[in-house]
Design brief:
Elements: E1 2-5, E2 10-13, H1 17-20, E3 27-30, H2 33-38, E4 42-43
Parallel strand pairs: 2-4
Antiparallel strand pairs: 1-2, 1-3
């Protein structure tokens, strides 16, 4: 399932940080990416639901050597 925001017209994976900040009254749910796109929504540029599947994972930070 994908979460989307009515005001920004962006859909995200369920655990995406920007998607979690969407106000409940602006949140919409879609069963598929195709349904979200057909409704005029675009993919989130943080969690990239159109590229990756499964839950969002934060980027791994590179180890800083001192």
């Amino acid at each position: 399932m994908l979460n989307a925001c009515r005001t920004t017209k962006i859909y995200c994976r369920e655990n995406c940080p920007p998607g979690r900040r969407t106000k409940p009254e602006n949140r919409v749910h879609f069963e598929s990416e195709g349904a979200a796109q057909a409704a005029g929504y675009r993919a989130c540029k943080v969690c990239l639901p159109n590229v990756f599947t499964g839950p969002w994972q934060p980027k791994q930070r590179a180890a800083i050597s001192a």
